[in-house]
Structures are given as C-alpha cells and as structure tokens.
Amino acid sequence: MACWGVSASQLLGIAMIGADELGVSTLDVLNLGTSLLVDAWKETSGPMTYLFLALGGSTAFQSARKAA
Length: 68
Hints:
By secondary structure, the protein is mainly alpha-helical. The chain has helices at 2-22, 26-31, 34-44, 47-67.
C-alpha cells in the first residue's frame, strides 16, 4: 500500500505538470485515463525516479510499521 501511495503521487505530479503545460485543469488530465499518465511517466522517468520510489516506499512502510 505504501508503494501505491508513492506511485499515485508521482502520477498526480505528472498530471499537474501536464495540466499546467496544456492550460487545462488537473482533473481534465486525470479524466484522460491513467494509461496516458503511465506512458508519460515512463518516458520521463530516470534513475532518480526509481531511487525516489524505493526510498519513499521504504519510509512509508517503516512509518506504518512503527505506528502500528
């Protein structure tokens, strides 16, 4: 679940950037479908993206474990 949250925040960030560049609302971009967002994420992702996902997922998991 922690990795899902980190991935969802990445896709939301892509949607926000795309909406700003296109001059539309973020909801309009999100309504286009997640497959377009995932494709855009794949094109723009690099080693730092995967490092962020790994660190974010690990931190979220550790925080949830300590809170329980």
